[in-house]
Amino acid sequence: MQYGVELFPYQRIKKMKNEEKKQKFQELSDVLKIISYFVAAFLVGRVLMVNLMAPFGIAYLIAIIVSENNKVSLVSGIGTLLGYVSLYNNVKNLPVYFIVTATLLVLNYILKNIEQKKKLLLIFFSIFLEFLLYKLLIVKLSLAIGFLTSFFEITCIFPLYFIIHYSIICFKELKTRHLYTNEEIISMAVTASLIIAGTWGTSIHGVSIRNVIALTFVLILGYVKGSSAGAAAGVAMGTIIGVTSNDMITSIGVYGLCGLISGIFRETGKWMSGLAYIVAFAVLKMYSDIGVQFKIIESIISCAVFLAIPQKIYRKLELELDWQKKQECFKDNYVDKVKDILIGKLNSFSDVLLNMSKVLEKLADNDKLEMKSKSSALIENLADRVCSTCNMKSMCWKRETFYTYNAFSELIGNYQENKKDVPYELERKCTKRSVLIKNTEDIVNGYIINEMWRNRLSECRELLAHQIENMANSVTEIVKEFDDNIKFNTDTENNIRRVLNKNNIQYRDIFCFNNKNDRLVVKLSMEACGGEQLCIKKVLPLINEVTGKCMCVSDDGCNLNPLMNGCNVTFEETPKYHVASYVSTECKNGEKHNGDTYSFGKLPDGTYMTIISDGMGSGPQAGRESGAAVELIEKFAKAGFNKLTAINTINSIMTIKFSENEKFSTLDLSSMDLYEGEIDFMKVGSVASFIKRGDEVEVISSKTLPIGVLDKPDVDITKKKLKNGDIVIMLSDGVLDYESEAAGKVDWIVEFLKNSKNTDPRDLCENIINKAKELSGGKVKDDMTAIVQKVYNLY
């Protein structure tokens, strides 16, 4: 061991590397921040007024001193000095600006611990005093003139300071939860205009860099924030640039119009906005006198830069500056957080159910372990009853304990197997054989009864454990369904509001979202129209025009609210496919009730679901079994749960049998997506289904067990693609298996469908039932159900 070696505590290398990366990133961001402040100070210091005054750099430096630390203030002061240096021979009274800038840097260090208001008063008083002394001592003006000119410059600096300081605070709120107002955006645009105006005097082949940057900035802001903000930014840009030139009106007109045009055409897209801007600029060029200050090539270059910026950046800027979209984004985040909390609670509930299931299974295993100790307890009980008062017990249970114990065990075993044989050992020496035999019968009978109840309770405990486990799995699947995202479509909602207001259609509320299949849904609340069908005649065409999609009123129609004298109507995307269905049934001969149950219809999620459930046997009992399965699946599907989740949950319920007379049910389910034309066949113990396409017939068969037989349902899923004119045939086993010899065979129905030229669902359905009855000799040996569906393409 080496003495004096310094030992460091254990540290994670990955964590240290992450901290080093964060530190480097922070240092880089600080450097970029200082550089940006320096460049901004340099450019703002270069901005001149027509009378050769340059108060903008002083105002900017005061704002930095008030809002930033000493390092940034020093760098900004240096940038301001260099900006004034670049104005040599272009500005009047240049030395006073050097003196004021140096004084501000010195005062920043002297007054760093003073309250901000007092600090500002001292700064402005010292600036005024320096301007006044310079005018009196250097320029040799009179006291009155010097006082007025100094006061004028101070009155120019103060509002500029206020705007720049306000904008710096706003710039710091970027990428935060702050919601920008129009005033804040305009103040930021003014500061940006000052920075851009500082690029005057630079050109490449006669193209003004200032004009290109200024036009691009106004274009971007108008496209991102709208016509009002674009026009305001254009006016601010034109005013500031016009202050440095002799033609303020022209600058305001050009920049203001460009921002206005960009904002007006923002809804048509980036390319249309750019094209409209070029056209507007060309019109100004031809019909007004802007040829000296602006060139057509400058507008083309600025438009090219505007178009070259990716749309992704514009979306980020819009989300940052548009308070409505930013607020909606925050609302979406809150909704996601609430949903995560609810999902967490449901997952916890699922874990509790799984733990309960495991505990019950362990208790059932404990019952099996107890069997080992029960045999000795029976022998001891029998010995207590018979041998406790016997005079021979000392010989039997002390001298010959082993032989006596084995003999008692053999006797009990014989009576459990219903044998009346008494072991030789007990025949030889037992003096109470009749009492022994009678007590053995009592103990064995009691034991058998107790074991029957114990076994039944143990089986119930195991069954309950499996059911709770299935419930836990169902909850987990429900959570997955609930976790599907629903996107709020605020853009479409605002557009619909705008067009409804424009057409003077009164409404109370509107809500737009895209469901889990990314299809648009519009919920509208309005006053009751008294049966005039306002929602269909007037509102629906407007919604179609705004969304650019073929919409329709949902199957729920118009829901009236008599208390509020209003109605709620839901518009959804029109499905591409329509299904016409017909069903035909026949009861078994001698029965009045059909054991088959069926259902078909459109669901809220845009699918068309068809179910046939065949209860084992016939009559009302089979009908109740199949009806329960169909009803539960309908409830789950209409609530928006996955069909497999519904089948698993129903299987968990149907496996709980309270008597041996209770039977099982088959399930034949098809689910067609009316938008995509895809159909899923889900079969649990059911017979084959068929798809007829012209003269071709496709068979969808399955070999699975009915619902309730297994702990987990045996579901066979087949996916198919349907086309216009396809016919789907679903049958119960009473139709297909018209007699015992034909069980499981589909040849006759395939041949019948191929030869049939009838495409009407009603006629074809009735012909299938009649053909099955004909093949069975006119007798209906089992309940028959046939559903025929024809698919139509709407567009």
TrEMBL record:
SUPFAM superfamilies: PP2C-like (SSF81606). Residues 576-791 form the PPM-type phosphatase domain. InterPro entries: Bact_Sigma-Reg (IPR052016), PPM-type-like_dom_sf (IPR036457), PPM-type_phosphatase-like_dom (IPR001932), SpoII_E (IPR014221), SpoIIE_N (IPR045768), Vacuolating_cytotoxin (IPR003842). The chain crosses the membrane at residues 34-65, 72-88, 94-111, 120-137, 143-164, 185-206, 212-236, 248-265. Keywords: Hydrolase, Membrane, Transmembrane, Transmembrane helix. It is an enzyme of class 3 (hydrolase). One of its GO terms (molecular function) is protein serine/threonine phosphatase activity. It holds the Pfam family SpoIIE. GO terms for cellular component: extracellular region. SMART domains: PP2C_SIG. Its EC number is 3.1.3.16. PANTHER family: STAGE II SPORULATION PROTEIN E, STAGE II SPORULATION PROTEIN E-RELATED. NCBIfam families: spore_II_E. This is Stage II sporulation protein E. It comes from Clostridium aciditolerans. The lineage of its organism: Bacteria, Bacillati, Bacillota, Clostridia, Eubacteriales. The gene is spoIIE.
